[in-house]
Design a protein that fits this description.
By secondary structure, the protein is an all-beta fold. The chain has 2 helices and 35 strands.
Length: 525
């Protein structure tokens, strides 16, 4: 993953696999390939098939984020604009969770520049399936891995924030409860810092994280010196409650530089392995993804020994047609004999387009075969990042990383849902989860007199997921308020015209059953 590479112009361009990242950017390229208008619905290419031709489909619905100050109740929240093509996805299947950040070309953008270009702020973002904002939290300089997991038997929201230097993260993981209150901060141990690529809570209430360190290494296999320096991929399992390191795995102890597909770049440490995901395989093993070796590794959770390799130069598995992958991300076990992989296929380009893969693994006979591949009708080729999530109903949700799309497919490959950021925006991963939250902070209300003797009210509650109606309250004092109106919630911020009965007004958030969830501070009018 590399957050500072460009992404595609709407017009497809040619791949330049021989160019370094610096040379590529110097040419003025915006990065990956093949963005097309969201209205290109069409059928979906499966397996090795090319994407279907575009056909008439739903007209994309634009969910625009207006300029600064539009959210009167939250003037400092400026998420990116979204363009949505909805093909009938079930809206009950959960909220969409992303971590938008600009893809600067050549240099980092300031927040003001990003907002001016329509890219919005860097941070954590939750939307309804219709694209309307539910929760946004600015988090400069970068955020990744926003998702719902379970900790101590309760659903929690987790994410990583920190700085990123040449594709490596230096920060911490964070856990919030269903009121968006801090539960725990997860830090790497043994003098390291938690990397951006993985943050995963296990059933044992521990955290699996990635980290990087430098180490002397023989780099002759990639065109470097025998006495060179490599970035080493590290896995740590952290006891969340105590911060203790329970297990650590270092890549150079088990995987030599000769397995890498990178070539020597510059004189600094070489990222020969580039670990980008780790997850439990079972109680005794972990599954690791290494982008630079094009391989997945099953490792023993006690000894660290590599049990088998899938893909790469030393694969223990025979790879069936279409089951190959290169420069991949986000490998997960989804059943006894299946895994998902986001197959970037670049950078440099090894494939014509990126794919979300479901592979069948015959671990007894060491055979890997393609169960299904999901591709985007626009023929997206993602240079870095990406994710694949199988939802409870069997649908597949795909985050396209540096390509500004998130898509949902039926298991048979039918495209159901397509959400697009502005060009030059990204989300490291994208997910869809059921999430119920009631913020510990109260709703917000702004009131202004209108021209017809009433008041224009604007109400919002950043992060609340159960608000169905706003009840308007008014009275002669801030502590004596009675209901005067009831209006349906509309989007992130609801505009209400009201005629207060006293000098103070407030709003109460009600759920679908009329239960009061929270009340704003009273405003004098």
């Amino acid at each position: 993953m590399h957050p500072r590479t460009g992404e595609a112009d709407p017009t497809p361009t040619a791949v330049h696999p021989g160019l370094s990242r610096r040379a590529f950017l110097a040419r003025g390229g915006k990065g990956a390939l093949g963005l097309a208008a969201l209205g290109a619905g069409g059928s979906l290419g499966l397996g090795l098939a090319e994407p279907g031709t575009a056909s008439a489909g739903p007209v994309p619905r634009l969910v625009a984020t207006p300029p600064r100050g539009h959210f009167r109740t939250e003037p400092d929240i400026i998420p990116p604009s979204l363009q949505l093509t909805d093909y009938g996805v079930d809206p009950t299947m959960g909220l969409v969770m992303m971590t938008p950040s600009p893809l600067p070309v050549g240099r980092a953008l300031t927040t003001a520049e990003a907002v001016e270009q329509g890219l919005g702020m860097t941070g954590m973002m939750i939307t309804n399936p219709n694209g309307s904002l539910v929760w946004f939290k600015e988090s400069p300089p970068f955020a990744t891995n926003l998702q719902v997991q379970n900790y101590r038997g309760k659903p929690v929201l987790i994410y990583w924030t920190g700085k990123i230097v040449t594709g490596i993260g230096y920060g911490n993981g964070y856990i919030l409860n269903q009121s968006y209150e801090p539960v725990a901060t997860v830090k790497a141990g043994n003098g390291l810092q938690a990397d951006l690529h993985e943050f995963n809570i296990t059933p044992q209430n521990t955290a699996l994280i990635t980290a990087y360190t430098t180490r002397a290494a023989d780099l002759t296999a990639i065109g470097g010196p025998a006495n060179g320096v490599a970035y080493e991929g590290v896995v740590q399992e952290i006891d969340i409650a105590t911060g203790k390191v329970l297990f650590q795995w270092n890549s150079l102890d088990h995987v030599p530089v000769s397995e890498s597909y990178i070539k020597m770049q510059g004189k600094g440490p070489q990222d020969y392995f580039h670990i980008n995901s780790v997850a439990p395989w079972d109680a005794d093993h972990l599954l690791i993804s290494a982008r630079s070796t094009w391989a997945a590794y099953l490792i023993d959770r006690r000894t660290g020994a590599v049990v088998w390799r899938l893909g790469g130069k030393k694969s223990d598995f025979s790879i069936g047609p279409g089951a190959n992958f290169e420069w991949q991300h986000h490998i997960r076990r989804i059943g006894a004999n299946q895994i998902t992989i986001f197959d970037d296929g670049a950078y440099p380009a090894e494939e014509k387009q990126s794919r979300a893969l479901v592979l069948n693994l015959d671990t007894a006979h060491k055979r890997a075969t393609l169960a299904r591949a999901y591709t985007h009708p626009a023929g997206l080729l993602t240079y870095y990042e990406g994710s694949v999530q199988v939802l409870p109903n069997g649908n597949v949700f795909v985050g396209w990383g540096t390509e500004p799309y998130s898509s949902e497919f039926r298991s048979n490959g039918e495209l159901l849902y397509d959400l697009r950021f502005p060009t030059n925006d990204q989300s490291y991963r994208a997910f869809r989860f059921d999430w119920t939250a009631t913020p510990s902070t109260p709703p917000k209300l702004v009131a202004a007199a209108d021209q017809i003797g009433g008041y224009a009210l604007h109400a919002s509650w950043n992060g609340a997921t159960q608000v169905a109606h706003w009840q308007v309250l008014s009275g002669k004092s801030a502590t004596s308020l009675d209901p005067i109106a009831l209006v349906p919630k509309s989007g992130f911020e609801t505009a209400i015209t009201a005629h207060p009965t006293g000098g103070y007004v407030a709003v109460a958030a009600l759920d679908v059953h009329g239960k009061r969830l929270g009340v704003s501070p009273a405003v004098k009018v």
